[in-house]
């Protein structure tokens, strides 16, 4: 059972919350708990089923891995996001293998997967919310796959850098390669071109963005 102060997350994030009966609300509360993952945890390899999850704080990277070991980030779950950490527990027919790693210390509220499945079947509002969640995440995955297939890496790299909303990025070129589904050597070559153009300064484990405007013009 979650603490009383954590119930506000249900009120804020579940559009169906006020339409539930008192008994249904208690069912959600009793069958939920808080968990904390340290940085670098491979959640997807855990034998435990986590089910519907609210991110209280932290960041989880959701990505695919090819047979050759290349990775492609699909989306991130961050503070106040909702996701399903081990989808096969709730959707047993789902055969896609998706990886989840914590990018930082992450605290979550997890609902028992069997309890959530039961609520989906009994309450149409919960079922509709579940379908909306699936649609949203599936749309994000399709968009990312289309980008990886049809958008040049040079453009994807610039978009990635701009999306960080920071002037100084503490990140390795290997990490960027994993996010974009590329090789470190290719990322290094593209970063050098951007550095020569005066857009950024690259050093070991750090990228300093010198001009966002120059980066944006290179997208045109």
UniProtKB/TrEMBL annotation:
Pfam family, one: HTH_Crp_2
Listed InterPro entries: cNMP-bd_dom_sf, HTH_CRP, RmlC-like_jellyroll, WH-like_DNA-bd_sf, WH_DNA-bd_sf
Keyword Transcription regulation appears in the UniProt entry: yes
TM regions (residue ranges): none
GO MF term set: DNA binding
Signal peptide residue numbers: none
Domain HTH crp-type residue range list: 165-211
GO biological process: regulation of DNA-templated transcription
Protein name: Transcriptional regulator, Crp/Fnr family
Organism from which the protein derives: Fusobacterium equinum
Organism phylogeny: Bacteria, Fusobacteriati, Fusobacteriota, Fusobacteriia, Fusobacteriales
